[in-house]
Amino acid sequence: MKRIFAITIMVFLILSIGCGKSETGEKVKAKAETKQKQVKHYSIEQFMNTVSIRGRSFSHDESKILFTSNKTGIYNIYAVPVKGGEPELLTDSKKESYYLASTFPNDNRVLFSADSGGNEINHIFLREEDGSIKDLTPEPRARASFMGWNRDLKSFFYSSNIRDPKVMDIYEMDIETFTPKMFFKNEKGFASFRISNDKKHIAMVKVDTDHNTDIYLFDREKSEYRNITAHEGEVRNTVQSFDVDSKKLYYSTNEDSEFMYIKSYDLAAGKSETVMQKNWPIRSVRFSWNGTYRVISVNNDARTQIEIFNTRQQKNVELPEFPGANITSVRFSRSETLMAFYLSSSKSPSNLYVYDLKSGKYRKLTESMNSEIDPNDLVKAKVIRYKSFDGLEIPSIFYVPKVIGKGEKIPALVWVHGGPGGQSRLSYVAVLQYLVNHGYAILGVNNRGSSGYGKTFYKLDDRNHGQGDLDDCVESKKFLKATGFVDENKIGIMGGSYGGYMVLAALAFRPEEFAVGVDVFGVANWLRTLKSIPPWWESYRKALYTELGNPETDEEYLKKISPLFHADKINKPMIVLQGANDPRVLKVESDEIVEAVKKKGIPVEYVVFDDEGHGFRKKKNEIQAYKAILKFLDKYLKGKEETYIY
């Protein structure tokens, strides 16, 4: 699992992909010089009053769609009529965020997930029709994740590590007594389960490394395992979905290809065939309840591309056109007459829509943008590419402030995504829009090792962390300088999780390259982090050790790439932000790097949230964090104590 911290292609092939959609620094410069419009600057409170929305599930009578929103300051469950209207608050948690899992099939009850203070020990909760709440998986040390409904709609499946902290078993819970029973005892350490509708087969993934996985099919009647993707060399295989009739299993693979594509396996014949290939990786394939619609999601150059195929009519479904925006998170009602989806772009947060498949009409159901913010003041991000030190093209996402005075030189930030193996995408990120709105250019670097650009590119950072991937970030400064409007002496680096590690690595291993660093819960000591992997990641332990290093046998190498052991080289100001309950990057990681740098007399600011984990979920904390980041940047990168409003 390469994307452990959040949320490739052969080199000569990479150099040719997507060049027509990218822009050089000179082209960006020419466009920036034509901008004259005055832009209003907004406070972080105004940006955070924009609502974050996620999840979608139709009510049993299909009159409403339920979703998760942080409108109250933390995430709660809402319901909105499909005909439009004000969303209704169904839960009113004041302390922990609640995330929608599913509505019930025949009444108004709801399942949702929540942990405690960001510790990632998620439980499944039931909201009764009267509003009362019950924890269905109350074991305090065990995680539980909703997996879906049994076809008879009288029970649901979930995974849990209650038997063994290192292993996720599958349980079935009926909705009359809510008594769980073991459905599959995971004695071989599998991951990523799918259950056929007839309950006769379970598909699962056996992880060797992040680049080499197999899919096993378990026959419950015969109690037999079958490897349906046996291969030589390195091939990545991922379970997607059974068809409605339980006759075929759909899965993704990159066998003999740079990109993941879709194959189907005929359970009776024991043979696989290719279903669909694209020039970009196919991320997922899912079916509507009765199998009428097949939904494909493609990662098209950092954009989400949705394709829906009508399996009865054997033709694609024509979707509404939304220029410059992405349709994501498609979900069909059980009757297959309605489709819920989200619409978003780099300058517009996600909003929930409903589409009537018979009439072809759609309706917007939410308004997530704060009405105080003029969307015209926000910036549209662009895909650009630049060449790194060895000629490799690095795809990146570029945000340019709306107004740049003639001859003006502005500061910039190199933004590094999480992972390792994540991807900066053309999606709305409030903190990035906030910083750009206050005069910072931002380049979201998809350094070597990022996902979305083929398996060769994806593998280029293996046992090369804090080295080749960091050099890609350093080389991005040349692109920024070539724009003509970025001050090459005022370029900082910022990132969260694995991106936070890259910030610390940049400050320690390339101490003269970046003027400041913004580290958001980044790894400082790989030896400790890899030894403290949460037990529920056990099935991925070998993959992590193969890519990053084994703390038992590679101690010297891991010390070499761990910024904590080179903190004496850090000589630039930095700010560090950390959740006290983070189970992935322990708080001690940030404590020690802050202490080490402070001893040198280097300016260090440290912000800790006692009620957060790996990522900040509460609005009050996000406001505090992002306000602190801007003040830090204004002081140490712009050289001003105050700019605009905060």
- The CATH first-level class of the largest domain comes to Alpha Beta
Which shape, going by the Cα principal axes?
globular
| Main sheet record | 8 strands, mixed
Nearest-integer average pLDDT: 93
Number of domains: 3
Q: Ends: how far apart?
A: 38 Å
Number of helices: 12
| Model regions low in confidence, pLDDT < 50 over at least 5 residues | 3-21, 32-36
User: What would CATH call the homologous superfamily of the largest domain?
Assistant: Alpha/Beta hydrolase fold, catalytic domain
Give a nutshell description of this structure.
It contains twelve helices and 36 strands.
What would you note in describing this structure?
The chain has 646 residues and is an alpha+beta fold. The chain folds into 3 domains: 11-45 and 373-636, Rossmann fold, CATH 3.40.50.1820; 52-288, Neuraminidase, CATH 2.120.10.30; 289-368, no CATH class. Strands 29-30-32-31-33-34-35-36 form an 8-stranded mixed beta sheet, sandwiched between helices. It is globular, with a radius of gyration of 24 Å.
